[in-house]
Amino acid sequence: MASSLLALLDDIASVLDDVALLTKTAAAKTSAVVGDDLAVNAQQVAGVAADRELPVVWAVAKGSLVNKAILVPAALAISAWIPWAVTPLLMAGGLFLCYEGMEKVAHRIERGRRDRTAAATPIGAADAAFDLDAFERSRIKGAIRTDFILSAEIITITLGTVASATFTTRVTVLIGIAIAMTAGVYGLVAAIVKLDDVGLHLARMPGAGGLARMRRALGARIVGLAPALMRTLAVAGTVAMFLVGGGILAHGIPGVGAAVDEWSRAASAVRGIGAVLAALTPFAIGIALGGLAGAAVYAVATLVRRPEEAKGKT
């Protein structure tokens, strides 16, 4: 009896050791996608009222957990019964991300045009027509929708890492990565969007000593840098959509992935800056491919929408 118990404990320890090792490996492989996820979701909260930022982040985080609750069993089922479907599904997700990125670019251009004509709009008219609740709901819905694609990429990469492990280990690692990535990403998003509030609190702290003055100076600096950080994240989030989507397409289209590897090797031969060029080549190709794919899908979607919009106006 005692020997059986010791054997069971040894097996459990072995499984836990495998889970820890594979979780660490999967986390390292998905770190790039997690960085993109962070930039995209921090961008999605931009423009939300200050007192609603954390509730919006929490709503998106809950939606992300629901996404992963769907994706983890779906990934396990697909890998077990129809493994050939993984690549087409990823390609569809990559195209959707590219489309989302191009849609954001188009909306930013359109917003710039509207801003140039804002002087002709009576003061308060635009505010009266603006529905803050609808804007918040659209932000949450868009963030959860984008999170679904990025979460699918994280789950798929993780699944590839644990493909040869036992079923129990695969399930444990996938669930662990899903929870850890959601907590990490949305915890950081919450910290980023409240950074200006932290700076404002420090800037308003009373006191006449040198430490108090340093705190106020630091707070003022944080308040000054926060808008620039959010603008940077807005740009980074859009670029991340092209990068991740284009990267998925590059690895899914036969021959493109090999060509990217070949170009990276050729770039590494450049004297002095070869290592830097080799590292940047896949990113540049991914962004370019993602931009082209996004423009193509956006153009098709626009052509499809026009007849429907025309019907709606008649």
Describe this entry's structure for a reader.
With 314 residues, the protein is mainly alpha-helical. It has one domain (2-233). It has helices spanning 2-29, 31-45, 53-81, 86-116, 125-129, 132-161, 167-193, 195-203, 210-252, 256-268, 274-313. The longest helix is centred in the last third of the chain and has 43 residues, at 210-252. The protein is globular, with a radius of gyration of 24 Å. The termini are far apart.
Mind telling me the C-alpha Rg? 24 Å
Task: Sketch the topology as an H/E string, one letter per element.
Answer: HHHHHHHHHHH
What is the helical fraction, as a range of percent? over 70%
- Report the portion of residues in β strands: under 5%
Total helical segments: 11
For the largest beta-sheet, the strand count, sense and barrel status come to: none
Poorly predicted regions are 1-18, 119-129
Q: How far do the termini sit from each other?
A: 81 Å
Please tally the β strands and state the result.
0
Category from helices, strands and their pairing: mainly alpha
Mean pLDDT across all amino acids: 75
Supply the number of structural domains: 1
Which term fits the overall shape?
A: globular
Describe the protein's topology.
Elements: H1 2-29, H2 31-45, H3 53-81, H4 86-116, H5 125-129, H6 132-161, H7 167-193, H8 195-203, H9 210-252, H10 256-268, H11 274-313
Q: Can you summarize this structure?
A:
The protein is an all-alpha fold. The chain has helices spanning 2-29, 31-45, 53-81, 86-116, 125-129, 132-161, 167-193, 195-203, 210-252, 256-268, 274-313.
